[in-house]
């Protein structure tokens, strides 16, 4: 009986180790959608703080010295609901976007040899970059709406009213003006994140069996490293995505990444590019830990269910 249990455990571990090769695409996509919605919804209040801290030329009432102070002020002055304003936008966008994200990642990683034994930084980085290019094309408009609604004093009442007003006042281009900057940030972010995650996962768990603690730890570490490295690009992206609500003419007329960098440098110098870094790291450590924990967990159990195990 004990030997049968041991054999069963070994077979289950081998089955999980082969997930990269054997899991159907629809399972990867469903798991990705579930992970994306879970991550973005639970971490939304911290994301609100990160957006607020990155906005240049903010009013004194919307100037914050740190994550804790921002959380306290927003909650006491605007109410707890302000920390969730715009969450519907990411819930609508995150599911499909993350389905595309993880589906693309697994397909490209397999095609480029990333599932072979050993460390394959080039393969995982390329697969991650491919995944974010595909998913960001879908997610960018939802991200613009989200950040417009997250701003201090935002008059937008709903996702639909925000989308409608932005389109009427600024045109379709407003939803994609930050897309090149978004890619300039998310491509290196995702390349770093996936490379660090895959490396840390193999170091922490050489047998590569299903290990929630490993997925959570490796995911959090990957998120912290990638977030710190790409914060300057995230500041520029936020400037472009919220420009239509700014009272500063220079910011309102910013047309691309180069101009966003020039404005930030002119107004605040090098320190301007670190705006919101602590909030960004504080967001990405638990968010990435949760995302990878959810993704690997959903993927594991959905695959078992699909195979009738």
From TrEMBL:
Molecular functions (GO terms): ferrous iron transmembrane transporter activity
Cross-referenced SUPFAM superfamilies: Mitochondrial carrier
Database matches in InterPro entries: MCP, MCP_dom_sf, MCP_transmembrane
Gene Ontology biological-process entries: iron import into the mitochondrion
Record membrane topology: Multi-pass membrane protein
Keywords, sorted A to Z: Membrane, Mitochondrion, Repeat, Transmembrane, Transmembrane helix, Transport
Chief subcellular location: mitochondrion
Subcellular location: Mitochondrion membrane
Any single GO CC term annotated in Swiss-Prot or TrEMBL for this entry: mitochondrial membrane
Tree of life domain: Eukaryota
Residue windows of the Solcar repeats: 23-111, 119-203, 210-301
PANTHER family to which the protein is assigned, alphabetical: MITOFERRIN-1 (PTHR45758:SF4), MITOFERRIN-1-RELATED (PTHR45758)
Name of the protein in its database record: Putative MRS4-protein of the mitochondrial carrier family
Organism in which the protein naturally occurs: Meira miltonrushii
């Amino acid at each position: 009986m004990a030997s049968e249990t041991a054999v069963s455990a070994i077979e289950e571990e081998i089955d999980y180790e082969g997930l990269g090769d054997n899991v159907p695409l629809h399972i990867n996509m469903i798991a990705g959608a579930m992970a994306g919605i879970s991550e973005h919804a639970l971490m939304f209040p911290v994301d609100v703080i990160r957006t607020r801290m990155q906005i240049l030329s903010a009013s004194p009432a919307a100037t914050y010295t740190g994550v804790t102070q921002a959380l306290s002020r927003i909650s006491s002055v605007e109410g707890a609901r302000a920390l969730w304003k715009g969450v519907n936008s990411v819930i609508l966008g995150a599911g499909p976007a993350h389905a595309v994200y993880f589906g693309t990642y697994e397909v490209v990683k397999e095609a480029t040899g990333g599932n072979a034994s050993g460390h394959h930084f080039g393969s995982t980085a390329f697969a991650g970059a491919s995944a974010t290019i595909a998913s960001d094309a879908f997610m960018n408009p939802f991200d613009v709406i989200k950040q417009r609604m997250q701003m201090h004093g935002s008059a937008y009442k709903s996702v639909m009213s925000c989308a409608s007003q932005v389109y009427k006042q600024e045109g379709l281009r407003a939803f994609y003006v930050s897309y090149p900057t978004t890619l300039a940030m998310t491509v290196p972010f995702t390349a770093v994140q996936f490379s660090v995650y895959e490396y840390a996962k193999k170091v922490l768990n050489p047998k590569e069996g299903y290990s929630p603690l490993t997925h959570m730890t490796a995911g959090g570490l990957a998120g912290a490293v990638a977030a710190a490295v790409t914060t300057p690009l995230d500041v520029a992206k936020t400037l472009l995505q919220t420009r239509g609500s700014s009272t500063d003419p220079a910011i309102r007329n910013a047309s691309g990444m180069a101009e966003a960098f020039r404005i930030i440098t002119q107004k605040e110098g090098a320190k301007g590019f670190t705006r919101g870094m602590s909030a960004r790291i504080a967001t990405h450590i638990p968010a990435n830990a949760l995302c990878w924990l959810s993704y690997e967990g959903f993927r594991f159990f959905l695959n078992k269910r699909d195979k009738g195990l």
